Amino acid sequence: MDSVSGVGPQMLADVKPPFIPEGATGMTILVEWPPGHPGTPPHRHSGPCFGYVIEGAVRWELEGEPEHVIKAGETFWEPGGDVIHYQNGNARSDASAKYIVFMMCAPGQPMLTLVEEEELAERAHRRAPRPSA
Known about the structure:
Strand content: 25-35%
CATH superfamily of the domain at 25-109: Jelly Rolls
CATH class of the domain at 25-109: Mainly Beta
Structural class: mainly beta
Number of helices: 1
CATH architecture of the domain at 25-109: Sandwich
Largest sheet: 4 strands, antiparallel
């Protein structure tokens, strides 16, 4: 690795997920949101996810963490399992957003499960305070 000149592999993220489901399979997807797109409704994944924003900026919010923006060239990860992923939409109204995600999926479970309104209300106390408008 030649980290001085920027040629070759460069470490972008180094995280240890809390768990990897037994017998998990890996899936890599490309997500593209047009300007202002809200992203996927609140959901969760059966295993950890790791990603890299290629273009634009993504509004990101996991249960218990404050909302923030991840810009092109930055990475993200989420633990999967029981944690609710509230936001993953385009943070910009004037440009598209594009990112790649590698997910570890538990066998026999969907890669993504939407969270019902009733559960969101029951777990509202776990959500970080919302930014003021």
